[in-house]
Every structure is written in C-alpha cells, then in structure tokens.
Specification:
CATH topology of the largest domain in chain A: Rossmann fold
Number of strands of chain A: 7
Distance between the termini of chain B: 76 Å
Helix content of chain A: 40-55%
Radius of gyration of chain A: 22 Å
Largest interface: A-B, 52 and 54 residues
Oligomer: heterodimer
Helix content of chain B: 25-40%
Strand order of the largest sheet of chain A: 1-2-3-7-6
Strand order of the largest sheet of chain B: 3-2-4-5-7-6-12
Strand content of chain A: 5-15%
Largest sheet of chain B: 7 strands, mixed
Strand content of chain B: 15-25%
CATH class of the largest domain in chain B: Alpha Beta
Largest sheet of chain A: 5 strands, parallel
CATH architecture of the largest domain in chain A: 3-Layer(aba) Sandwich
Shape of chain A: globular
Order of helices and strands of chain A: HHHEHHHEHEEEHHEHEHHHHH
CATH superfamily of the largest domain in chain B: Thiamin diphosphate (ThDP)-binding fold, Pyr/PP domains
CATH topology of the largest domain in chain B: Rossmann fold
Number of helices of chain A: 15
Number of domains of chain B: 2
Number of domains of chain A: 2
Order of helices and strands of chain B: HEHEHEHEHHEHEHEEEEHEEHEHEHH
Distance between the termini of chain A: 61 Å
Number of helices of chain B: 13
Shape of chain B: globular
Chain lengths: 371, 361
C-alpha cells in the first residue's frame, strides 16, 4: 500500500519540505519547534537505530533469547512519541523501542525482557506513562481504551487546557487490524468518545503475511466505519508523524473523540531474530523502502537548512557510546531471584503459592548442600 | 464527519440526566451508614444490595456489562442501580465480552474498580484471552506495581431449563489460571457479603453466581460481618462421610444429608465457597474425622476442581481415608439439551449412591 495523494507527507524521500497543498495545515506545528527539538528528533532516531543494531548483535552472540528489530520505523515512533504530552498514557505493542526511549524508559529494560529476566521491566508511573509491552496482538488496544474511558469518567479532558488535559495513544501494527480486540476497542472508543489516538504502524508485513491479506482497503479507511476519523501519513517522515499525531492527540484531548492514524512504514529487518524475511519478500521491495529511509531524508533536510557537520558527528559518537554502554550493561544483568516467580502472582497473600515457594527454596538448598 | 457524542455525555440511556455532565465521582455522596438488621431476600436481591453498598462505600466502584442499565441485567441483579448511580457508574457496554474485560483492565490502571457482568456462563469465552492472558497476569508482569481490582460476575450452572451455552459450569478453566481468585456463594447472606469482599480485593476475582438460586430467599444479616472470602465452611455436622461442593450444589448436598440421616448415615456438609484458593484446613479436619469424602459439582469431572480436591485430600489425609475420594459430577459431555439436564446434573440420589459406595469400603 504505497503513498497516495491522501497520504500526508511533509518531507519528501529526498529530504525536501513540502510547503503547499494539504501539508499547509500542519506546517505551523513544525515551524513552532525549537532548533533543539528538531535536533532531538534526529538524535533519537540515530541512537535508537544504533541500539537496535547492538541488540540484534547481542542476540546473535547468545546474550538475548530473541530480538525484535525496529529498524526503518524510527520516524513513525520518534515523531509520534514527541507529539504526546507528558500527562498522556502510551500503550505499546512490542516494537516501540524509540517511543520507550523518548518517554524515559532505560531501554536496557527491553534487553532484559528479551534476555528472559523479566516479563515487564519498567514501571509506567516512572516512565511518563509508557506502559508495558504487550505480546498478544491487539490486547493493549482495549487496555488503552479502558484507560481513556477512565479519563472521560474523571472529566480529565476537554477543559480547554492542553497542558493538563489527558489523552491516550495506543500503538499497533497492520496485523493487529484483523484481531477482534482492535475492532472491539474501536467500537468502545467510538461509543464512549474516549480521548485517544490509535496509531498504526503499517510496516507492511505481519511476520510473513502481507498487509494485502489483512485488508482490501487502506487501513485508515477502516476507521470511518466505526465513526472515527482516520488519516494516513508517510510514517518515514518524522515531521509528518509529529505534526499529525500532535494535532490528532490534541483534538482527542479537547473532546473530539478518538482518532486513527495509519503510518506507512517498513520493517527493514526481520519480524524477530527467529525470522528470515528473504523467504517471503523481494529484495526489490526492500530496496524501494531503503530508498525512503527516515533518517537519511531528515539528515538531508537538516543539512539543507544549515545544521553543522559537528552536530552529526557528535550524534554518531553519542550513538556509539550508547551502544557500548548497552553492551556492557547487558553482560552485567543478574539472573532474577526466585521471588520474581512467586511474589507478585497475587497482590495479597496466597498461602498455597507461599508454600510452593518455600518448598522450592528448601529443595534447591538441599541440592546445593550436596554439590 | 458528523459530530458524534458519547452516550456517556448525553446520558441518553437514563432518565437521570442531572449527573450526566459531571464526573463519576459526582454520583457519590460519601460512605453511607451501613444498613442494619436481618432481611429475608433472594440471592439476586442480596447481590444487588451488596453492589449498591460497595458503590456507596467507594466512588471508584463502577459496573459494566450488557443490558445492566435500564433493564437491570437479564437476571435483574443490577436493577435500579443505574437509576440511582447514573449512566457513568453503571455502564451498558457494547456487546463484546473481550471489550468489557479489556476495558476493565485499563480502568483498573486508572484507579477504578470495575464489576463486569458476563450475561451467561457460556458467553464468557470471547473474553477468555483478556481474562487469562492479561487480567490474571498483569500484576505479575508489573512485579506488583499495578493492581487489578476487577470483579467478573458470572451467572453459572444448570437447573433452569435453558438453551445451549446458558447452563454451564466453566470454573475449572479459570481455577487453572494463576493470578485469578474464584468464589461462589451458596446463600443470599454469603452473596451479600462476598460480593463486597470481592470488590474490595486488589486481585481479580471471578464471582460465580449459582443462577438457579437467584430467586431463593434467605436471611441476610446486614448488621453482621463478612467471613473471610476464601474460607470454606462446615455447614452441617456429621461423623460418617464428608460431602462438599459449592453454589447450587449445596442445596442438593443438604437434601442428601437429610435423606442419609433417615437411613442412619451421618453426613457432614462443607460449603467450599472459594474455588481458588481452596481452604483445605476445614476439609482435611473433616476427613480426619469421617474418613470418607464425596466431592460434588455440576461441572464435567475430567480435569476439574473436584479432581483437584480429590487429589489434594488424598495427599494430605491419606492415612485417615477409609475409602477413595469419590467424585460426583456432570458427565464429560457438553451440557445436554434442557430436557436431559436432570440426568446430567448430580441430584440427591446420585450423592447418596456415592455415599453408599464410600460407606461400603
């Protein structure tokens, strides 16, 4: 599903900013951004790509059980993440590494999750409300909708104060569009007019199944059937991702009801490290998307407006340092204590489980005594 | 795009529009004085009274489900509550069980305590994934940093002559899932108190309501106090055989005990009350006294709560047993068409047959 005249693109694939036509309504949002914010977009995309490469290497070296690559989707994630306000709640699927980083998650937590030392890894309350990864496809769309319903019950939105009014954004992929939970979430959010944005990263492949098997119409057009405004953006354009998400999140927080954004992007890597994409997609397709790379086009644009070469070299250096730090800390991740298996199954005391833990500890101790 | 307004905002589903623009908390006048005295009421009314009390005690308690608003639920358990508390605290939901449970999870993250009504036992399965993969594991996944005070009310069991999917006993699926708590009252008094305790729990609680008992009256001691939610209870003393069950089965067990008494066999009856966790102390103490145990349930016996109890009691009280633990359950067949249900469901005669077998060892 390629871009069409309907697709909102601010920055062309060769790094030129459009100034006329439909994009005009979004340009003021970009013009208001400070130089340091524009730099931050670039920095975040480069750092998270380097992190992604490092994590893939760590998986190949046996340090991680699995890796979930995000390469190619940096613009969709960084732009939308920066569009969210601090008070917003963000519900990811499991590939939103850049969103996690933008919201303040120590991304070593993602490494821990895939190394097998935790099922979670961070506290949403300490991470600007970035919720835990959800591995069952589309389950998080209902959690997000319930949370947004709570915002409506609390009247914590639509007061005309965007700095405090709350909203929710939920991330999902093109595969999730076929799940019942997503469709139920769209029904509930429309019925209760919750303040939330559904942000779909259409990376064109649900493991090996192309988006054409999920839908006969562009995904953003589905939303209309639920009574939800939908819009399609070039997801490899960080400026479009920021501006369109900011506008729609603010419309939702202002009482305009839920919104739906389809970001066209591409998973440059495999679904996970267990996957071999050469079995199901062509090199020509891959190369067509490499040519639309989100980072290189943004770099071209920044350079065209006079960004200094030292900025780019400094970011490159920071990314290398970031990866080295991740690598070093990965090797130091301790194995989890047995407490993690038992202690939080219930939030209140559970005698039978406590007895099982006690038995395991004494059993292990008896084994240790003999060795 | 046509302007669409939420029916929460319009209050269109309730005559009570005064509250419609306000927050959920506006339908909350602060804790009300607890009602007093003993009142004779059917179980459906007792649950209604318990829900009402919980909603008065805590503004964060909300009800969600299909047809629970103006209709009061298909069994009328929530009758009058939307009129009293408003459409923002008693939410008629779209017809989607996964949507109800999944939304309740998000609401719990927001600080709400949702009580979700599943219309009938056999309709819970569209919500199974959200219950078992999400709700049950959420606190564990968050390493205790998030709690899930969600109650799922499930009218269950047979004896009402209904069509397919309306008479099932699916407890075992959920009892098998770590992270869930399961309870089932057998009397109006327990129903009144246990629903309030379930709502007060910070863990998800599956509240199985024996629907054939909805219309049977019993004394509810409004001035009393709640027994521990997960305690099993000896409700009839005996010396020869222990029989145990939960929900509507309790009525059958008490009948059987009376009949056995007339034949000279002294039967002790235990109301399980809680299916997860199971409170074994009273059960083991009883078996140590009687030496014989019959476990009864409407559910199919294969891989069931009854099987679990039989295995565990055998481990805990092996040297006290005079006979193998005997299960009396539904058959390992789909719940049959209603005209066959009396053959499917254990009745007093089938309990007595098992008692006789236990006594014969």
């Amino acid at each position: 599903m390629a871009e069409t005249v309907e697709t909102v693109q601010l920055l062309s694939a060769d790094g030129v900013l459009h100034t006329e036509g439909r994009v005009a309504e979004f340009l003021p949002l970009i013009e208001r951004l400070s130089e340091s914010t524009l730099q931050r977009f670039y920095r975040d995309m480069v750092v998270i790509r380097r992190f992604d490469t490092e994590a893939a290497n760590l998986q190949r070296q046996g340090q991680l059980g699995l890796w979930v690559p995000s390469m190619g989707q940096e613009a969709a994630q960084v732009g939308s993440a920066h569009a969210a306000r601090d008070q917003d709640h963000l519900f990811p699927a499991y590939r939103e590494h850049a969103v996690a980083m933008v919201r303040g998650v120590d991304v070593l937590s993602i490494i821990q999750l895939l190394r097998g030392t935790t099922h979670g890894g961070w506290n949403p309350k300490d991470s600007k409300n970035f919720h835990l990864y959800t591995l069952v496809i589309a389950s998080q769309t209902l959690h997000a909708t319930g949370y947004a319903l709570g915002i409506t019950l609390d009247n914590a939105y639509a007061t005309g104060q965007p700095e405090t009014d709350e909203a929710v954004m939920v991330y999902l992929g093109d595969g999730a569009m076929s799940q019942g939970d997503l469709n139920e979430a769209l029904v509930f959010s429309a019925s209760y007019q919750t303040p939330q944005v559904f942000f779909v990263q259409n990376n064109h492949w649900a493991i090996s199944v192309p988006v054409s098997v999920q839908s006969r119409v562009p995904l953003y057009q589905r939303a209309a059937g639920f009574g939800i405004p939908g819009i399609q953006i070039d997801g490899n354009d960080v400026l479009a991702s920021f501006a369109v998400t900011r506008e729609n999140l603010d419309a939702a927080r202002d009482g305009g009801g839920p919104r739906f954004i389809e970001a066209l992007t591409y998973r440059i890597g495999a679904h996970t490290s267990s996957d071999d994409p050469t079995k199901y997609r062509t090199d020509a397709e891959l190369q067509s998307w490499v040519a639309r790379d989100p980072i290189s086009r943004y770099e071209t644009w920044l350079r065209s407006r006079g960004e200094s070469p030292t900025f780019f070299s400094a970011v490159a250096e920071e990314a290398e340092d970031f990866a080295a730090d991740i690598r070093a800390r990965t090797h130091e991740i301790p194995n989890p204590s047995v407490d993690k298996m038992f202690d939080h199954v219930y939030s209140e005391h559970h005698a039978a489980l406590a007895a099982q833990k006690e038995w395991l500890l004494s059993y292990e101790a008896s084994m240790g005594a003999g060795s | 795009m046509t302007e669409v307004s939420s029916f929460l905002a319009t209050g269109s589903v309730t005559g009570n529009t005064a509250d419609s623009a306000g927050s959920a908390a506006m339908n909350f006048a602060g804790p009300a004085p607890a009602p007093t005295g003993t009142v004779l009421m059917p179980m459906a009314k007792a649950i209604n009274a318990g829900l009402r009390q919980a909603m008065m005690d805590n503004a964060k308690v909300i009800l969600m489900g299909e047809d629970i608003g103006p209709l009061g639920g298909v069994f009328r358990v929530t009758e009058g509550l939307q009129a009293e508390f408003g459409a923002r605290r008693v939410l008629d939901t779209p017809l989607a069980e996964s949507g109800i449970i999944g939304s309740a999870i998000g609401l719990a993250m927001r600080g709400y305590r949702s009580v979700c009504e599943i219309q009938f036992d056999g309709f819970i399965f569209p919500g199974f994934d959200q219950i078992t993969s999400q709700l049950a594991k959420m606190t564990n996944r968050h390493e205790g940093q998030v709690q899930m005070p969600v109650v799922i009310r499930v009218p269950y069991g047979g004896h009402i002559g209904a069509v397919e999917h309306h008479q099932e006993s699916p407890e075992a699926y959920f009892a098998h899932t770590p992270g869930l708590r399961l309870v089932s009252p057998s009397t109006p008094n327990d129903a009144y108190w246990m629903i309030q305790e379930a709502i007060a729990s910070n863990d998800p609680v599956m509240f199985f309501e024996p629907k054939s008992r909805y219309w049977h009256k019993g004394d509810v001691d409004l001035s009393g106090s709640a027994a521990p939610l997960h305690a099993s209870r000896v409700i009839r003393s005996g010396t020869d055989v222990t029989v145990l069950g939960h929900g509507a089965m309790i009525t059958v067990l008490l009948q059987a005990a009376e009949l056995a008494e007339a034949e000279g066999t002294s039967v002790e009856v235990i109301d399980l009350r809680s299916l997860s966790p199971i409170d074994y102390a009273p059960i083991v103490a009883s078996v140590q006294k009687t030496g014989r145990l019959v476990v009864a349930s409407e559910a199919p016996g294969f891989v069931s709560v009854s099987s679990e109890i039989a295995a565990t009691v055998t481990e805990k009280a092996f040297y006290y047993l005079e006979a193998p633990v005997i299960r009396v359950t539904g058959f390992d067949a789909p719940f049959p068409p209603a005209k066959l249900e009396t053959l499917y469901l254990p009745d007093a005669d089938r309990i007595l047959e098992a008692v006789d077998r236990a006594m014969a060892f």
